[in-house]
Amino acid sequence: MKMGNRISLFLLVLVLATILSTALIEVRAADFDLDVSPTYRRVRAGETAHFTVTLITITPGYSNDVYLRALFEPPAVSVVFSDNPLNPTGDIDSDMEVRTSIYTPPGVYTITVRGRDPLTDQNVYVDVTLEVLPPYEPEFELSISPSSLTVSRGDKAVFTVKAAPFYGFNHPIYLSLICPACASHTFDPNPMCPSSTSCSCPAIPCYIYTSTLTIDTSGMSPGNYSIIVEGCYDGYCDRAYATLTVGGVSEEEINLIVYPVTVKVKPDETFHIRVTVGITGGETTEPLTLRVVPPPGWYVSRYPSRLSKTSHLDLWVTVPKGTSPGTYGMSVELYREEELLKSRQVMILVERTVGEITIDVRPSHVVLTEDNPESELVVILNSPDVNEAILTLVGLPSGISYSLPAKLRVGELGSINLTLRDAPPGEYTATLIAKAEDCGCVNTTDIVVEVKGPPIQTAQARAPATRTQTIQQPKTVTVTRTVSSVRTVTVERPQLDPTVLGLGIVGAAAIISAVYLLRRRPVPTPAPVGAA
Description:
Elements: H1 3-23, E1 32-37, E2 40-44, E3 48-57, E4 67-71, E5 78-81, E6 93-99, E7 107-117, E8 122-133, E9 139-145, E10 148-152, E11 156-166, E12 174-179, E13 184-188, E14 209-216, E15 223-233, E16 236-247, E17 254-259, E18 262-265, E19 270-279, E20 283-293, E21 299-300, E22 306-309, E23 311-318, E24 326-336, E25 339-350, E26 358-362, E27 365-368, E28 374-382, E29 388-394, E30 400-403, E31 407-409, E32 413-420, E33 426-435, E34 442-451, E35 466-472, E36 477-482, E37 487-492, H2 498-520
Parallel strand pairs: 2-8, 10-16, 18-25, 27-34, 35-37
Antiparallel strand pairs: 1-3, 3-6, 4-7, 5-6, 7-8, 8-37, 9-11, 11-14, 12-15, 13-14, 15-16, 17-19, 19-23, 20-22, 20-24, 21-23, 24-25, 26-28, 28-32, 29-31, 29-33, 30-32, 33-34, 35-36
């Protein structure tokens, strides 16, 4: 046999062996699937989110155990499955409990749930989204009742002080009477503890705090008083307000009227107080002394301090620019020589100055295409009043994913990364929201995202979502079919049946033998012409 014929014969055998081995490779889908509901949860740091994982049987008669595992857990988060493994003939549902902590950084996280059959080496993956918001600190709200009370001088004024805890607060609350500070008073109990008359806190959680405030009015002059009760624990304080009117008859009919008794104002503002000193008969033989005692550093306009007749006075009070928000008291007192005849209290609520914040996004209009599916935007915040703000982006379709910093300091550059997944062509308007917690100010700006061209088709097609099945050993074959969500299934290639492989080899040998015999058969010689 010539060399060329031998080479051709070798190539023919090689091609036949390749065709037979390829035809014997089996490609099949997974025997099971997973469904997780819901696919998105939002919790505050320290709270727990729950997802339901359901095993779905695809191949009839499939009965293997499927083991669950959570991949790509966020920081300071633990994931626990109530039932693991799942089995088509037993438990097919499992509660996936995602436990965050106060140390979990705020943000949006993707957790991948893997279902694995160790007997057949099949794996199914499902993604869920967990959004973690900043935690709230435990706190409480103080209240006092009644809100106003009138008693005669020398009687006891009794108020009930209550506190409602929030976000797991369960500590003692220490009480104090801010105004009038000179009044003789008691709190019973002090500190307050939940559902207890002593400072021996019962089981957690605690819901009710109660204390009784008793004020002795024997040493108080007739008049109106602002009652301010403050409750504190470990640096956190809250206040409650009420009005106490002490009645009585003085030696002379002298009245002191102050209006208003409650004022709301902001730093660097001036407010007006009207003071009326009424004297029976119009005048008194001994001049009276009027004293106005504002908080330290506050400015009060000039007023006559010596009065002997009924008078109407206008006072202008200026709050310093750097005054901290809070509650302040100002006393208006009327004396005869050194004897205090009347006293009125003005409660001044200094409010927080409303700050401003501006947002600058560059560019404000972006175009996403199949060739350029990603874009980065730069964000900068400007404000003279706040230090940082929380950023939120709303309005984008589900086919466009994004990432952005949870908080951004004023003056620093932040990035918003957009990625086109499977959003249809069109123009979308998203709103970027910046909120500063320390002043409560909010501002927004719009971002236009334009999607051009046909929807992106990838190895994991997302219109609708697809499942990608990979067969390993020795080469990888990818088979794609449409399902409800993007899942990746990995299945090992089954081993070739020795009998089938032997039959294939025998067949190939038979073909080779036939070709060889045909080539060796002698060519018949034609008979000579004219032979008889």
